[in-house]
């Protein structure tokens, strides 16, 4: 039992990332590279023509070459997505608050929100595009319909699952309805609202793309879906794939951005946003 | 004692919507400045009784009278079984809540809340979120919040039941110290004989199904009570007496 056990100085993890974090980044990256490499290899070895299946290198080249029209389309789609999400978030929040204030309102309106949710957007998009003259507005409505429900239903659940003891406490101090809502129910519902928002972010993009597809056959839009359709008609398959890549990347970016917002807002108090190390 | 009690319960009964009779015929006077423990097995309606006194539940029979007027009924603090803190708010904001709900300005409320946190020995933890505090510290925040309005009646519903023994003993002592300094009235619900004897000046023993008062025992040991009281012969004797009363209450129910 003599001497001090030589303690190795803690090795500084490379780039400040732990082994676990490295694994989390490296493992999917390697899989991705392998799949892309295999794809490129198959295309080259079998000499598959690009109008059947372009290789990833060609897709990347097309993406760079056609960046100007593609990025312009991306901007159009992104604008509709963001606007639809904004409207869905504010209307969803507002309606959920209304539901929490009045059971009658909730019971009379909630079934219709469900109907709105379960009706396939592909089926009603043509109608909306016919009824609404302004094409941007009709796309916005389609994207909004898809994005609206998760925020509404999540926030409603959140507002209704406030801690009963805390509600008693507010009653004990004779808090007004407004104080209960503002200081208790809304903060309690925040994690639910944010998780609804994360789901809706991706859905708004899908709604916008679907609506563009439907409208695109009428030939009056210029979003990413329109580029995909157009490239399909012209058999410019690499371009079609490039637009598809942009759609996926945009969806991922929206999800990550909303996750970051959620993390920043909740990190100090909510379980879902705590690092593993901080868990008690 | 000649002064009117702080609160009087007269034939108070509570029947739940399900038809269960939770509390029956409770008569109880609580004097200002007293430390009263409500002791009984689970399901004896002691928490229900507490909630009725707090105004969180209405009795279905009898009445609860406040000789000091309606203002006295509002002049209360309540500590739940769980700390029941707002997880999104700092310790300071949690303690300041009752003051702000009553319309006090932010700055003054924060100042008073900080002073109250210091009195429960949480100076330096003002900016901490509940998540970062231990179970005992969270309960201290909860007590600080209940006392920040300087209420005349402090109600506690098995506040220390979920804590480990060492922490519970410390909080017992801190609660007694605060009570001796301010002499607010305490109505303390517990199912622990040892805790009730250590803290209270008067123990009201309840029996279950339906909840009713079985015995009303004074604990005449002098304050300040400290750790040596816990090991004294007088303490043991009181515990034995209260245990017997409790055993009797439960036997009546069983038979």
Automatic annotation (TrEMBL), chain A:
<dbReference type="Pfam" id="PF00528">
    <property type="entry name" value="BPD_transp_1"/>
</dbReference>
<keyword id="KW-0472">Membrane</keyword>
<dbReference type="InterPro" id="IPR035906">
    <property type="entry name" value="MetI-like_sf"/>
</dbReference>
<dbReference type="GO" id="GO:0055085">
    <property type="term" value="P:transmembrane transport"/>
</dbReference>
<comment type="similarity">
    <text>Belongs to the binding-protein-dependent transport system permease family.</text>
</comment>
<feature type="transmembrane region" description="Helical">
    <location>
        <begin position="112"/>
        <end position="132"/>
    </location>
</feature>
<feature type="transmembrane region" description="Helical">
    <location>
        <begin position="205"/>
        <end position="229"/>
    </location>
</feature>
<feature type="transmembrane region" description="Helical">
    <location>
        <begin position="80"/>
        <end position="100"/>
    </location>
</feature>
<feature type="domain" description="ABC transmembrane type-1">
    <location>
        <begin position="74"/>
        <end position="262"/>
    </location>
</feature>
<keyword id="KW-0812">Transmembrane</keyword>
<protein>
    <submittedName>
        <fullName>ABC transporter permease</fullName>
    </submittedName>
</protein>
<keyword id="KW-1133">Transmembrane helix</keyword>
<keyword id="KW-0813">Transport</keyword>
<dbReference type="GO" id="GO:0005886">
    <property type="term" value="C:plasma membrane"/>
</dbReference>
<dbReference type="InterPro" id="IPR000515">
    <property type="entry name" value="MetI-like"/>
</dbReference>
<feature type="transmembrane region" description="Helical">
    <location>
        <begin position="241"/>
        <end position="266"/>
    </location>
</feature>
<feature type="transmembrane region" description="Helical">
    <location>
        <begin position="138"/>
        <end position="159"/>
    </location>
</feature>
<feature type="transmembrane region" description="Helical">
    <location>
        <begin position="21"/>
        <end position="42"/>
    </location>
</feature>
<keyword id="KW-1003">Cell membrane</keyword>
UniProtKB/TrEMBL annotation, chain B:
<dbReference type="InterPro" id="IPR050166">
    <property type="entry name" value="ABC_transporter_ATP-bind"/>
</dbReference>
<dbReference type="InterPro" id="IPR017871">
    <property type="entry name" value="ABC_transporter-like_CS"/>
</dbReference>
<dbReference type="GO" id="GO:0005524">
    <property type="term" value="F:ATP binding"/>
</dbReference>
<dbReference type="InterPro" id="IPR003593">
    <property type="entry name" value="AAA+_ATPase"/>
</dbReference>
<dbReference type="InterPro" id="IPR027417">
    <property type="entry name" value="P-loop_NTPase"/>
</dbReference>
<comment type="similarity">
    <text>Belongs to the ABC transporter superfamily.</text>
</comment>
<keyword id="KW-0813">Transport</keyword>
<feature type="domain" description="ABC transporter">
    <location>
        <begin position="7"/>
        <end position="233"/>
    </location>
</feature>
<dbReference type="Pfam" id="PF00005">
    <property type="entry name" value="ABC_tran"/>
</dbReference>
<protein>
    <submittedName>
        <fullName>ABC transporter ATP-binding protein</fullName>
    </submittedName>
</protein>
<dbReference type="InterPro" id="IPR003439">
    <property type="entry name" value="ABC_transporter-like_ATP-bd"/>
</dbReference>
<keyword id="KW-0067">ATP-binding</keyword>
<keyword id="KW-0547">Nucleotide-binding</keyword>
<dbReference type="GO" id="GO:0016887">
    <property type="term" value="F:ATP hydrolysis activity"/>
</dbReference>
